[in-house]
Amino acid sequence: MGAQLIGPAVSTSAAATLEWLFRPLSREPGIDREALAGLLVELARNVEPQFGAEPNGVRPIDPRLEQLRNLLVGREIEVLSRLRKVLEDPEQLAIAVGRVLPAAVAQVSSDARLGEVLAPTLEKATQSSIRSDPRTLLNILYPLIVPAIRKSIGETIDETFQSLNESLKHSLTWRGLKWRWEAWRTGVSFAEVVLKHTLVYQVEHVFLIHRHTGLLISHVAAANAVGQDPQLVSSMLVAIQDFVRDSFSGADQQGLDTARLGDLLLWSEPGPFAMLVAVIRGNPPEGLHETLRDVLSRIHDERRHALESFDGDSSGFADLEANLRECVALGQRAQISAKRGFPWFVALVGLVLLALGGLGGWRWWQNEQAWEHAQQLEAGKRRTWDGYVAQLRAEPGIVITEAEQRDGKFVISGLRDPLAIDPQLLLHQAGIDPTSVASLWKSYQGLEPTFVLVRLQRSLDPPPSVTLEVEGDRIVARGSAASTWIDRARVAGRRLPAGGPSLDLSHVHDINEGAIGKLSEAIQSHEIHFNFNQSLPTVGQDAILDQLAKELTDLESLASRLRLTARVMLTGHSDDAGNGTFNLSLSLARAEAVRALLKKRGVDPDLLAVRGAGQLEPLETASSEAARSANRRVSFKVGIEEQQ
Amino acid sequence: MTATLQKKICMLGAFSVGKTSLVKRFVESVFSETYLTTVGVKIDKKTVDLSNLTVSLILWDLAGEDDISSLRMSYLRGSAGYVLVADGTRPSTLEVAMSLRRRVETDFGPLPFVLLLNKNDLREEWAVRDEEVQDLQQSGWWVRSTSARTGEGVDDAFGTLAERVVR
């Protein structure tokens, strides 16, 4: 009975089990009554052997059997029916399974199959979770990712510092200077040179591969390098090169010469018969290409023929390993810095710098002193200059339009009256080196009274008896002068420019006025007469001559007193009868005669000058005898001049 | 062990004749089979001990193509010999092998080769007639029937080819 229910549970899959459970029962629940009846009869016979009833007599439907069944398994039937209810109701089943699921999973957690079975589901679940809301997963992973990122960044920064340290370390060492020199010489930046020398890389494998067959000729690996069978690798490399060449037209003769995967770099150098492939870890300098090419070309030079006829037997190429080993030896080694001795070089550089610093400081101090001195000198010069300019500005007849210091030179320009003081002279007086001054003066005529005075004195040439002075806005002339001079001065005064000082002549007296003038007029009023053709005066004129002599002597003494020079011109005249030339000499003789007569009477002959006018200056122009008689005479003309 | 003597051998054959299976079971292989579909070739090595020397056969397993015009012939360059693989249960693959051989002969001249009639464990499905094989053998073909599953004839075949390419 029970076996009938449980039996199919051995079915392999859990799904099938449930399906069977949910399947409606094929028959009505009941029992094989005939079999049961037989069994009961048999039991009765065992108890009572004489029991004669036959099971055949049992009726198909006998309520007592049902009763018996209930008595026997009624309880089980109830349990089973409850179980079935649970199985049929998904909600109840879920609750039931949920109750045991954690324990079930825990039970089989050591079984690898659980992981395999769950993985696809979990993957799908994760994908769908990310699709619906990535933040959920992000939040889950956050505690994992952040430390990882932090660690990675930290390592990168460490590397950067390492690199920086390396650079700094090399900047002051002998090697650093050497690299600087190299950078300068080759024209590349110092950073590149440092990088070139400090790049950390390692050539891990070098393959020498026959190009035609792709077979390996020689291979060398670094001590710590791992890798697959070099024979296979080399063929695969060639295959990949062929692949690239075939796949991308235009790369006929070129293969794949560089490939990078992570920090693993593959460099291939093609040769005529063999190619050299280097597997490099890290960042090699570009110059490594050159090295590889050199090695490859050397191998070709040495073994050209053997390479050409290579048929897969690499036994004859064992010696090439040495060449390849050269390449593998390449790589920037870790800096040997632990056992660095006393950094004597740095110390030396330090000392030199110190010495240079000291020298520099002393020089600086010296310079500072010199500079201060220069500043003082400069200030002194400046002061002198300013004084000069001020003095010049105060000078009449000087108009300064520009005065400044330019390019270490003084520059001064303006207008200058030629009568004004010479700026150059003033420069000397001020003690300024004229070569340090550029002057540009344009002439103009000033109206300053002093200049006007000077100009008047020069143009009028006043006699010593006259003084010219500036009085306020006037120029005043004082003293006495000949009327001619006074006339001239009056004209000049009128010509003076308006706005300037005027010339005041009111205090100048005419020297011909006054006593000397009267005396002169008296002398000039006299005449000495002559008879016809006679050079001596007509008799009876002695009184006049005496009078004349007295007046002339007075004149001389008066002039001397007045610091004047008097001159008396004695002019002899003739009538118009006779020869003109004769008359001329006769008139001169008459003047000479009078002069002699006056000299005899005590007159200084130097006072008297003589001339003959002949018949050219007649007193009377009539042709009568009276007129002729009047014309035969000696006349007197007084000239008063200022003493020279 | 790594022999100093190497020979490049190409594996040629129609699609799914069992080349890769042959290689997979009987040779040193370091590369994944995805190479075949990506690069079109996969390199394997079979070291063969001959009487007086050891030779490394570097096997270029070319991606199987029924259309031989698409075969990358450049991969055959430098080959010392080749292995033609056909499926004994599919006579059409023998046709492909024969045309491949003609193609190689045209491009690279006569090279040592061996024809492997694979899948001989499926004797009841065998479809290549013995007369046909005999004809090929008479015309100088080296034919071996092999089974990638049982390994029958495989070593012998590679040994034979090694002998022929080294000679």
Which key features would you list for this structure?
heterodimer; A: 644 residues; Beta-Lactamase; Alpha-Beta Plaits; 60s Ribosomal Protein L30, Chain: A; 4-stranded mixed β-sheet; 20 helices; B: 167 residues; alpha/beta; 5 helices
Q: What does this protein look like?
A:
The complex is a heterodimer of chains A (644) and B (167). Chain A is an alpha+beta fold. Among the domains of chain A are: 199-329, Beta-Lactamase (2-Layer Sandwich), CATH 3.30.450.70; 449-510, 2-Layer Sandwich (Alpha-Beta Plaits), CATH 3.30.70.1770; 515-642, OmpA-like domain (60s Ribosomal Protein L30, Chain: A, 2-Layer Sandwich). Chain A has 20 helices and 15 strands. Chain A has helices at residues 2-6, 14-22, 33-47, 63-88, 90-108, 112-132, 134-171, 174-186, 190-198, 230-247, 287-308, 320-329, 344-394, 423-430, 449-460, 483-494, 515-525, 542-561, 580-600, 625-631, and strands at 201-210, 216-221, 258-261, 264-270, 274-282, 398-406, 409-416, 437-443, 466-471, 474-481, 502-510, 527-529, 564-573, 608-614, 633-642. In chain A, the strands form four sheets. A five-stranded antiparallel β-sheet of chain A has the order 2-1-5-4-3, with helices on both faces. In chain A, strands 12-15-13-14 form a four-stranded mixed β-sheet. In chain A, strands 6-7-8 form a three-stranded mixed β-sheet, with helices on one face. In chain A, helix 7 (134-171) crosses helix 8 and helix 8 (174-186) crosses helix 9 (190-198). The longest helix of chain A has 51 residues, at 344-394. Chain B has 167 residues and is α/β, with parallel strands linked by helices. Chain B has one domain: P-loop containing nucleotide triphosphate hydrolases (Rossmann fold, 3-Layer(aba) Sandwich). Chain B is 32% helix and 27% strand. Chain B contains five helices and seven strands. Chain B has a seven-stranded mixed β-sheet with strand order 2-3-4-1-5-6-7, with helices on both faces. In chain B, strand 5 (81-87), helix 3 and strand 6 (113-118) form a beta-alpha-beta unit. Chain B starts with a strand and ends with a helix. In chain B, 44% of the residues are buried. The model of chain B has no long low-confidence stretch (mean pLDDT 82).
